[in-house]
């Protein structure tokens, strides 16, 4: 429960956004800048600098992506039970700062993977807890909550735009090391902004923090264990399958455990969280192709210049992010009506399904683009950009909506853990994206443009068919959400 001293501040946000929104906006913006420096350059770095083949690149990048979204489970647990949200965020930011410097100095595969393991650890501590603290600033039932998360997500998007454009320029005119080092600069700004917010706005954890040495030691041991586990998964891909299956089983077991021992209303909300996570997994499995198969596809088959400037593959992610800001501004102006809780959860499920449909349309356009123009010529960026803009709208309908939903669906005592589990769905999606990307992998050797275009046309068509089937399954799952949310009305009528 919220403390009485906080109630006045919470009441003031019923009809407006809390002043701390700009703190969370700025902190997450610069954290995302640093992360996307690595995320968008990593596949190209491995392929061009280390000369890895496609399958090896996809294995490492997908495992890294997955772990950065699985680690929030540990980060959420540490925040809820050991350190509190604020201290977990600061610890994560410091670890990220050190890890980005280490990546910039990496000269061997082993040192690089050790640094990437640090990024996964720091992200796990920071990412779920920023979202949790933002949710704590809004009263239950606030009509501003979802639009607040959309504004927050636009902060994330701003960081992504910077993280996908500036580093590419730095890499081209300076070096890979300078590009990766710029990520640490973003973390310095994030630490300053969040520290200012803690003292100026008196940002509160969900529960008061009490210093206990044994909790700090336990948290430190969990962090070390997470780093070691991540390091071995990145260096030994064969064990990654077992590791990720284990994470899925543990997350599912935890959710089902909660359902069994929670009261009926909360149990149904937890079931909705489970279904939303399943839909989320399928969405992100295709979304993360932007950093895997689509990155190498653009580097090989799409013209490298656009409007007279050099247009590197990471720039397309920047275009996608610009689309999110544009669509985000439109969406935030529409969040006017206040709806009851059951209607809100049903609307959330509908938005998830619409996101899947838009993703399917995007892949259809990408597949069709491979057949456009002469077979021997590179594709125009104009063929690819619309697909990325459609993905931007799809992401806005799923990710910020999902983050907002978790803060209302989860029990207050488990909100950070549940936020971490929701982010696990991104991790599992990231892991599956590597499996899907292998369907597009090119064998070692040099191939003509026409051969590459036909290969990718066939590969993306297969991905589209898979996406279409999963979308149909998600529609069925959404019907279950509607059934769960409509059930209380029936019970009330009978008891009356």
Topology, pairings included?
Layout: H1 4-11, H2 21-49, H3 54-70, H4 72-83, H5 85-104, H6 109-136, H7 145-173, H8 176-200, H9 213-235, H10 240-261, H11 264-287, H12 293-301, E1 305-306, E2 309-310, H13 314-332, H14 341-369, H15 381-409, H16 415-437, H17 449-495
Antiparallel strand pairs: 1-2
pLDDT < 50 runs, ≥5 residues: 1-14, 488-496
Strand content: under 5%
Determine the structural class based on helices, strands and strand pairing: mainly alpha
Q: Whole-number average pLDDT?
A: 83
Distance between the termini: 30 Å
- Biggest sheet details: 2 strands, antiparallel
For the largest beta sheet, what order do the strands appear in spatially?
Answer: 1-2
Estimate the global geometry from the Cα principal axes: globular
Number of DSSP strand runs: 2
Helix content: over 70%
- The CATH topology annotation reads as Growth Hormone, Chain: A
For the record, the CATH class is: Mainly Alpha
The SSE order reads HHHHHHHHHHHHEEHHHHH
Assign the CATH architecture: Up-down Bundle
Estimated radius of gyration? 22 Å
* CATH H-tier superfamily: MFS general substrate transporter like domains
């Amino acid at each position: 429960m919220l403390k009485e001293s906080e109630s006045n501040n919470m009441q003031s946000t019923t009809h407006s956004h809390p002043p701390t929104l700009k703190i969370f906006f700025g902190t997450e913006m610069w954290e995302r800048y640093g992360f996307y420096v690595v995320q968008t350059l990593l596949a190209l770095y491995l392929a061009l600098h280390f000369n890895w083949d496609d399958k090896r690149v996809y294995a490492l990048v997908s495992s890294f992506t997955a772990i950065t979204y699985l680690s929030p489970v540990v980060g959420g647990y540490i925040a809820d039970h050991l350190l509190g949200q604020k201290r977990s965020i600061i610890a994560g930011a410091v670890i990220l700062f050190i890890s980005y410097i280490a990546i910039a100095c990496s000269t061997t595969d082993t040192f690089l993977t050790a640094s990437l393991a640090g990024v996964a650890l720091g992200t796990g501590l920071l990412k779920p807890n920023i979202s949790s603290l933002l949710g704590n600033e809004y009263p239950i039932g606030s009509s501003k909550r979802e639009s607040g998360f959309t504004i927050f997500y636009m902060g994330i998007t701003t960081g992504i735009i910077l993280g996908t454009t500036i580093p590419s320029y730095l890499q081209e005119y300076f070096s890979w090391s300078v590009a990766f080092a710029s990520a640490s600069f973003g973390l310095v700004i994030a630490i300053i902004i969040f520290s200012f917010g803690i003292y100026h706005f008196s940002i509160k954890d969900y529960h008061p923090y009490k210093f206990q040495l044994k909790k700090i030691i336990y948290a430190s041991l969990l962090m070390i264990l997470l780093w070691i586990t991540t390091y071995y998964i990145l260096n030994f891909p064969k064990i990654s399958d077992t590791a990720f299956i284990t994470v899925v089983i543990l997350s599912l077991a935890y959710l089902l455990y909660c359902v069994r021992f929670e009261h009926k209303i909360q149990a149904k909300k937890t079931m909705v969280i489970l279904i939303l996570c399943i839909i989320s997994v399928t969405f992100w499995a295709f979304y993360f192709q932007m950093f895997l198969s689509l990155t190498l596809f653009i580097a090989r088959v799409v013209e490298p210049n656009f409007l007279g400037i050099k247009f590197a593959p990471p720039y397309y992610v920047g275009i996608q992010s610009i689309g999110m800001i544009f669509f985000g501004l439109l969406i935030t102006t529409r969040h006017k009506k206040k709806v009851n809780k059951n209607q809100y959860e049903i609307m959330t499920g509908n938005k998830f399904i619409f996101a899947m449909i838009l993703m399917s349309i995007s892949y259809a356009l990408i597949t069709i683009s491979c057949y456009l123009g002469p077979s021997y010529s590179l594709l125009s960026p104009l063929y690819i950009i619309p697909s990325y803009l459609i993905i931007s709208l799809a992401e806005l309908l799923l990710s910020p909506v999902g983050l907002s939903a978790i803060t209302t669906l989860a029990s207050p005592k488990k909100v950070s853990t549940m936020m971490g589990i929701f982010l696990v769905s991104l991790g599992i999606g990231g892991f599956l994206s590597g499996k899907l990307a292998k369907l597009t992998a090119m064998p070692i050797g040099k191939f003509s443009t026409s051969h590459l275009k036909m290969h990718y046309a066939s590969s993306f068509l297969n991905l589209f068919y898979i996406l279409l089937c999963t979308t149909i399954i998600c529609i069925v799952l959404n019907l279950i959400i509607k059934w769960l949310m409509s059930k209380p009305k029936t019970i009330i009528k009978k008891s009356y």
